Amino acid sequence: MAPEPVLEAQGLTKHFGDVRAVDNLQFSLNKGELFGLVGPDGAGKTTTIRMLCGIIKPTSGSAQIMGYDLRKDMAQIKKHIGYLSQRFTLYGDLTVDENIEFFAEIHQVKNYDNRREELLEFTRLRPFRWRLAENLSGGMKRKLALACTLIHTPDLLLLDEPTTGVDPLSRRDFWKILFRLLQAGITIIMTTPYLDEAERASRVALMSKGRLAVIDTPQKVKSMMKGSIVELVCDDIRKASETAKGMAEVTEVQTFGDRLQLVIENMEKDFPKMRRRLLDRGIQIVQWRQVPPSLENVFISLTRESGWDKDHG
Fold this sequence. Notes:
Layout: E1 7-16, E2 19-29, E3 34-38, H1 45-52, E4 60-65, E5 68-69, H2 74-77, E6 81-84, H3 96-106, H4 113-122, H5 138-150, E7 156-160, H6 168-183, E8 187-192, H7 195-198, E9 203-208, E10 211-216, H8 218-222, E11 228-234, H9 237-245, E12 250-256, E13 259-264, H10 267-280, E14 285-291, H11 295-306, H12 308-311
Parallel strand pairs: 3-8, 3-9, 6-7, 7-8
Antiparallel strand pairs: 1-2, 1-4, 4-5, 9-10, 11-13, 11-14, 12-13
């Protein structure tokens, strides 16, 4: 018999007036899973998380968290979840220790001293425990916010863009902490605008304009990519980009510094044709290679094929 999902959403929908921010979401999470909810600003990611935390009510649909009904049992659900918002409110005039103590009292955690010591060690904040929160770096503030979120030992963590605006080193440290939480059996759902981060998830859901395009492992999602991706280094990158955009066989053109990345429908047939077109325009290809698709490539491809970029523009 399969274990009961930690979270199961059925037809979860949210309207704000005439705007359908979240549209009929269906997904479930298993224990110890890292579920990445990705998409651009306005996709509905934060609205989804806020519904699951009980901050806003769904217009329709339902969800169960740890077997409890989202609409009826929110008081019970809050005992099992931890929520880290994009703008988690720390108290700048309180120390690291005092902030953790404050959130322990909010969650009615008694005898929290040992738990606080564990979290300070876990987040490597012990040397800074007497420092005021307002004097911490951005990365340290995010780690303190996570420690406050974990004080009542939740089963499910809901993280809304936890690494946005954090420096690369702190971002790496934050991910180390997340993987240790997963090893401890905690389930995590997180939103992120960084598709490279989402590749670390057990499963990823690509979201656009309130709807889910696909849910699967990162590898399986990337295998859905249609066409081939070619990376070029040219002597005139701007001219090469303009030329490629004018070719029917090229479905996508992106510039990364001195490199051009193209999505071509048929590599064997269309690449020689494109190469000749560039040479005819006086553009020399210094170097080229075929590269595997990223989640970003797949996301752009899926939204273009579905017509969401036009229907909801």
